[in-house]
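Session log. Operator J.P. requested a structure for one protein chain; no other inputs attached. Running the standard single-chain path with token output.
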Amino acid sequence: MADDTQTLSTLQDYYATHRVLPSYAAIGRLVGLSSKASVAQVVLRLKGEGFLESSPDRRLKPGRRFYERPIFDSVRAGLPTAVPDYSVDTVSIDEYLVPNPSKTVLITVKGDSMIDAGINAGDVVIVERKATADVGDIVVAIVDNEFTLKYLERERGEMILKPANKAYPIIRPKNSLEVFGVVVGQFRKYR
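Structure written below.
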């Protein structure tokens, strides 16, 4: 699968740029195969591994494994250590971060009230939509008809919303507090 891995990488980069997979002829040009039969064999192997699928109109589309990425054992964030022999596994970011796709939304964070929880302005939080949450969960809540992202806490039997930045006050609802969803993950893009 060594050549297939390179072909898959080429197709992933092509898809990232064009948001569509190329035709068989274009795949041949991209990876240097002149025979349609050779391209068909590669595509068949990639389909068999779950990286590609055919749409109802017989065009190629990403398969369930198309978005898998290699994941290495670990890297130390403290003092450097010798480079070990890495065992590489794969993970699909969507499968890893999204436990319930039909109930999951992504929300871009504005403001800095959660910076001490490691959530910065511009980060994207992965929120599982549900009306209940546990004390201590980071939630997206609707408090007095306004959205906010905070820790859900209990104070004297009442639910409150606590920021992770001492510059912001605790939010005690005047009228209503509704949990929109629970934060189950986050990501940010470095430029």
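Operator note: The two ends are 33 Å apart (CA to CA).
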